[in-house]
Structure prediction request, 317 residues.
Amino acid sequence: MMLFTKITGFSLALLCSLPLLAKQVDERLSVGADVQIEIENLRGKVEIIGTDNNEVWVIGKLDEKANDFVFEQQGDSVIIQVQMPSSTHNSFWDNDDEESNLTIEVPKNAAINFRGVSSDVVLNNLHSDTNIKTVSGNIYAENLHSRVELTSVSGDIKTEDLGGKIFLNTVSGNIKDKQSTGQLNYQAVSGDIDASSGAERVSASVISGNLEVVLARVVDAKLTSISGNVEVSMELSNDGLLKVSSVSGDVDVKFQQGVNAEFKVQSHAGGRIYNNLNDDKVDKAKHGPSSWLATITGTGSATVKASSVSGSINLHY
Prediction:
């Protein structure tokens, strides 16, 4: 009898220490409409969807290497955490079939914080502050509003219909955004930025990638590239400001017909300026490779400042 008790106790302890092998989860919590939700998932895919219901519903498959799953309310916050072993080895990242695959429905006015490593994140219909950080995962977001900050180190970010104060950041991934409004900030180091936006205020910078943007009714825009090209098509408001620059790439800016702006354009180290807005000539330095253009279209009420080092600048309708 004593031997059976020892064996049974040992077996229970062993089972408790084993990973949650492909465990399915289907759990709900009733919450307030403006709850704060903290989510942590190391690897796999997490889809977060805003609804009209005052509950948080987690459904799907947990990571097979997970030690535990935490889903609980702490004060005004809900904690959702797939707990993983503290130490991993190279083969840990090899099998996608072992990873989490979760769908989380939340109140659409809930504030969301997410942290992951190789976790893809899909977001839809969230109308409060959203902060997403993943290392090598991709981020897909649609219909997010308020303050939105999406960051992936080596993953891509693809968004549509964002509104509010928006920050999209990646190091070696690409950013593709369309139909966003409000105040936008795009940053990429060695990736490309491709955006079509209705935002009035836009800041975008890349270091070794290309920047291609289509902007509607801009009040304030700052666009920079260090070793890539900048291509812009935009409608500049009558009191707007555009600053655009590239160090070793070309700049191409297309304006609406009848734009009212004062232009101050400089090109250094052998770059060329092409003025296809009016008949004003480009001035060239008597000594050295620099050139510049000072011209006005319409009433000149808006301001355009453009510069390039060793690249061309083309201004046109």
Remarks:
- The first helix runs from residue 2 to 17.
